[in-house]
Amino acid sequence: xxxxxxxxxxxxxxxxxxxxxxxxxxxxxxxxxxxxxxxxxxxxxxxxxxxxxxxxxxxxxxxxxxxxxxxxxxxxxxxxxxxxxxxxxxxxxxxxxxxxxxxxxxxxxxxxxxxxxxxxxxxxxxxxxxxxxxxxxxxxxxxxxxxxxxxxxxxxxxxxxxxxxxxxxxxxxxxxxxxxxxxxxxxxxxxxxxxxxxxxxxxxxxxxxxxxxxxxxxxxxxxxxxxxxxxxxxxxxxxxxxxxxxxxxxxxxxxxxxxxxxxxxxxxxxxxxxxxxxxxxxxxxxxxxxxxxxxxxxxxxxxxxxxxxxxxxxxxxxxxxxxxxxxxxxxxxxxxxxxxxxxxxxxxxxxxxxxxxxxxxxxxxxxxxxxxxxxxxxxxxx
Length: 382
Ligand SMILES: NC(=O)C1=CN([C@@H]2O[C@H](COP(=O)(O)OP(=O)(O)OC[C@H]3O[C@@H](n4cnc5c(N)ncnc54)[C@H](OP(=O)(O)O)[C@@H]3O)[C@@H](O)[C@H]2O)C=CC1
Ligand SMILES: CC(=O)[C@@H](O)[C@H](O)COP(=O)(O)O
Ligand SMILES: [Mn+2]
What we know:
This protein is of the alpha/beta class. It folds into 3 domains: 2-146, NAD(P)-binding Rossmann-like Domain (Rossmann fold), CATH 3.40.50; 151-301, no CATH class; 316-382, RNA polymerase sigma factor, region 2, helix turn helix motif (Rna Polymerase Sigma Factor, Chain: A). The chain is built from 16 helices and 12 strands. It has helices spanning 12-23, 39-49, 59-68, 78-87, 105-113, 123-140, 149-158, 190-193, 203-211, 213-226, 264-272, 287-290, 304-315, 319-335, 341-354, 363-380; strands at 2-7, 28-34, 53-56, 74-77, 94-97, 117-120, 144-146, 165-172, 233-237, 243-249, 254-258, 296-297. Helix 6 (123-140) packs parallel to helix 10 (213-226), helix 6 packs antiparallel against helix 14 and helix 14 (319-335) crosses helix 16 (363-380). It is globular and about 55 Å long. It starts with a strand and ends with a helix. The structure holds NADPH dihydro-nicotinamide-adenine-dinucleotide phosphate, 1-deoxy-D-xylulose-5-phosphate (DXP) and manganese (II) ion. Residues 148-150, 172-173, 175, 199, 209, 214-215, 263 line the site of 1-deoxy-D-xylulose-5-phosphate.
């Protein structure tokens, strides 16, 4: 029986993780969970799994939850609450990090220090502090197992070993506006941006897919997860999202991971690897139904956010943290209808231009840069 701790329980990945745990009660025990404010979604899961520790974002939510529960778990709040979940349980437990944004960084580090393996969906953690996360991974001998579909695909094609690899090839759907030219993106709406052609996901990552920042973050994520140089990571447009990513070996062989777009597959694999379990009710891929699969060379001018992200990744140091914070802030403003879609890329580019990169920032420096960048970007629209 594996003991699981879950950050971001009420989100898209969080709920699918709970579905995986519910399908295999003989394999997994949910010991603790964290969510933000969505008690209506959290409550039935909490009653079902009865975790002993729960973290919520604020004291009002804690009070509301306490009044609704039929048992008496420990309830903690805020950033300290996320840390408490990260530190709960025993070495060898698994923390599933499915919170949205760089708020996921400090708890990831604490969970590693307390000997947990990390099933990482929260790509912003690796983008903002990949050098710190990988250093702690080595120091504490814990596993960092990808949940992101592309990285899980690569992990499965690598069999855990990146030797003899020539290239990682990430596939990109093109997002909600994949069939539009850049000049036609001026007036696009939030509703249109949230209409991803293949995946049902949280709002922030869906907008990131539409700008292609998601793929940029994923290139940086792949660099840190697999220790592969940016020169050896390619991105190819693949509108069907059936080939989840590929590994090209030195002899020219390419191994690919295929499947229907169902995040329960990579989530569950992160919890069971190298073994596999059935997923009740999952839709199977029938290649004859898909018919043809399409691949196109990436256009880095059309998808400028991808280019910016790769540049920031290559620059390294604090640049990816600035990229990420500027993007999180700009996407939040877009979702609130305060800026236009194309301003997301513009604001990220401006934040990067204004930043003087630190070579190997500490956690404290990263958190400070994150806050400063968010407030600068908030000011760009005033
Ligand atoms: N969705 C997907 O298919 C994929 C997602 N990912 C990555 O996984 C992560 C989660 O994505 P997704 O599930 O879509 O996101 P969602 O927006 O659906 O969910 C985010 C979760 O984080 C919680 N949360 C947000 N801020 C805080 C906070 N300050 N304190 C505590 N909890 C907080 C939310 O709580 P509440 O809503 O209760 O406030 C919610 O449970 C992201 O990093 C994303 O890039 C990667 C690959 C695929
Ligand atoms: C499910 C998942 O992993 C997302 O990151 C998804 O891949 C988004 O797809 P695109 O960014 O390629 O549109
Ligand atoms: Mn992905």
